[in-house]
């Protein structure tokens, strides 16, 4: 039911955003710029110094009066005068047109919305691709965290119900614990009913109750406590983006470790081959084998043979 209300609110906001047109966005910009340059709380009527019920002729006279004060020729040292003078012309045009004035009066009475739509902010600030991607990641992870939190609360209520059912089955309605332990069966899904109205028992599970503590006994004889810690708490680290980064890091480290193991095995194999090829030469006096200082046996044996041939 909560999800229904959330989606209904989002749909309502989306409808309101889609209802704003280009003219509305122009008014939003003018309201923000007018308050930034002329002072917070300044609106179209207060800037022209006319009431909101002023007629078109009254607005025209007020425009001519203010335009003479804000004319660039009379304010050569004011760097912002050109923007203010141009803004005055746009405001006057909006108020002297019946349709655009009606549109402005709506926001004048009800207030300019704080959230003006994704399209408005995108056109105003022109975010880059990286900013958009970061925004989408933060948004989706935030929504996933909210769903995790809702699921966590649902699981807590279900666990609390299971624990209470097990305690009542073991110690009765008053739940006064006795000595020792009791094995009970608790219906997890709750009873359902067939077409004739007869109850159909749901899936039940065997549980062990000691005092007010409830446990699930596994087939191997081990036990798991059933309490609030059984439910998985929501965490931002378990949302999709941090989980993806963690998985990629683990895979990368796993490949590096595997590559290091292969290199170590190859190095060890090369060392074994070198040890096998290393020979020793028998010492004529002692009759024992002497290693040839790590040099290949064929090289040293060849050197011995060359010396013997020269002596002959």
UniProtKB/TrEMBL annotation:
**Predominant location of this chain?**
membrane
Q: Please list the residue ranges that the record marks as compositionally biased, kind Basic residues.
A: 302-312
Polar residues composition-biased segments = 277-289
Please indicate if the UniProt record lists Translocase as a keyword. no
Q: Which Gene3D superfamilies match?
A: DnaJ domain (1.10.287.110)
Q: Which SUPFAM superfamilies does the annotation name?
A: Chaperone J-domain
InterPro entries of this UniProt entry?
A: DnaJ_domain (IPR001623), DnaJ_domain_protein (IPR052606), J_dom_sf (IPR036869)
| Residues covered by the J domain | 43-108
Region (Disordered) residue ranges read: 258-312
Report keywords, A-Z.
Answer: Membrane, Signal, Transmembrane, Transmembrane helix
Asked if the record carries the keyword Membrane, the reply is: yes
Signal peptide (from-to): 1-19
Give the location in the cell: Endomembrane system
What is the topology of this protein in the membrane according to its UniProt annotation? Single-pass membrane protein
Q: Which GO terms describe its cellular component?
A: endomembrane system
Q: What is this protein called?
A: J domain-containing protein
Q: Which organism is it from?
A: Pleurotus ostreatus
């Amino acid at each position: 039911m909560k999800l229904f209300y959330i989606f209904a609110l989002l749909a309502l906001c989306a409808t309101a955003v889609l209802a704003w047109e280009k003219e509305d966005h122009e008014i939003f910009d003018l309201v923000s710029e007018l308050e930034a340059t002329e002072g917070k709380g300044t609106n179209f009527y207060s800037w022209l110094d006319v009431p909101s019920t002023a007629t078109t002729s009254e607005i025209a006279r007020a425009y001519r009066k203010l335009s003479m004060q804000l004319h660039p020729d009379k304010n050569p040292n004011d760097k912002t005068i050109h923007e203010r003078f141009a803004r005055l012309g746009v405001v006057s045009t909006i108020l002297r047109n019946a349709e655009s004035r009606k549109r402005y009066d709506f926001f004048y009475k009800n207030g300019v919305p704080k959230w003006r739509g994704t399209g408005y902010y995108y056109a105003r600030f022109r975010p880059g691709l990286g900013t958009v991607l970061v925004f989408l990641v933060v948004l989706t992870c935030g929504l996933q965290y909210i769903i995790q939190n809702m699921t966590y609360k649902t699981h807590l209520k279900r666990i609390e119900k299971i624990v209470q059912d097990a305690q009542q089955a073991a110690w009765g309605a008053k739940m006064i614990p006795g000595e020792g332990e009791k094995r009970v069966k608790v219906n997890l899904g709750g009873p359902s009913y067939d077409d004739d109205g007869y109850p159909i028992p749901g899936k039940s599970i065997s549980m062990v109750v000691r005092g007010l503590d409830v446990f699930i006994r596994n087939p191997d004889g081990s036990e798991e406590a059933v309490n609030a810690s059984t439910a998985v708490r929501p965490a931002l680290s378990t949302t999709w983006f941090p989980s993806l980064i963690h998985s990629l890091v683990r895979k990368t480290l796993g490949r590096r470790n595997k590559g290091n193991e292969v290199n170590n095995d190859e190095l060890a194999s090369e060392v074994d081959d070198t040890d096998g090829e290393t020979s020793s030469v028998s010492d004529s006096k002692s009759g024992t084998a002497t290693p040839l200082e790590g040099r290949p046996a064929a090289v040293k044996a060849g050197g011995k043979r060359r010396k013997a041939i020269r002596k002959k």
